[in-house]
């Protein structure tokens, strides 16, 4: 299918019953007319996004939505993954591992010391943004590539050493890609040691 023309190409995105239009310019004479570079969609719980473009005959799914590729080598102090807005406890830093305190629905620094500060659910990115899963890179890490990651006994941290003491929580949360890069995906199956 060739989508060449002048003017603007309408995109339709559907957030439940709220339909909005987003327009991207059509580059005359080009078959690569749509780029959503540096565009992100913030999704809430139980929310889906339906993006289509007009082919001249019907609304169709664009080819770039047929795959969702993450960048496994993000820039230093950056990430590539699924993130969302949340209420976050003050004093968190980029890369801190967080749990959800259900008493006030605030994400706080997680720890494997006991079940009250676990399980890990997300990783702090900035301001009110946390990452649910994806690649993250930070100069503060010097890890062994290929190693599995667990929730650490240190508040907000991760470790390659599995906790072993009574009352500790054992929760796999990802693995090391490079010394300063991890793939974060906290497993929601975890154990409390007795």
Describe the structure.
This protein has no helices and 15 strands. It is mainly beta and 194 residues long. It has two domains: 8-66, no CATH class; 78-192, no CATH class. The strands form three sheets. Strands 5, 6, 7, 8, 9, 10, 11, 13 and 14 form a nine-stranded antiparallel sheet that branches. Strand 1 and strand 2 (18-25) form a beta hairpin. The model is unreliable at 1-49 (pLDDT under 50).
What characteristics describe this protein?
four-stranded antiparallel beta sheet, disordered N terminus, mainly beta, 194 residues, 15 strands
Total strands: the figure is 15
- Summarize the biggest pleated sheet: 9 strands, antiparallel
User: Uncertain runs with pLDDT below 50, 5 residues or more?
Assistant: 1-49
Write down the oligomeric state: single chain
Overall average residue pLDDT: 76
The level of helicity is under 10%
Q: Radius of gyration from the CA trace?
A: 21 Å
Order of helices and strands, N to C? EEEEEEEEEEEEEEE
Number of individual domains = 2
From the helix content, strand content and strand pairing, which structural class follows? Answer: mainly beta
Instruction: Identify the overall geometry.
Output: globular
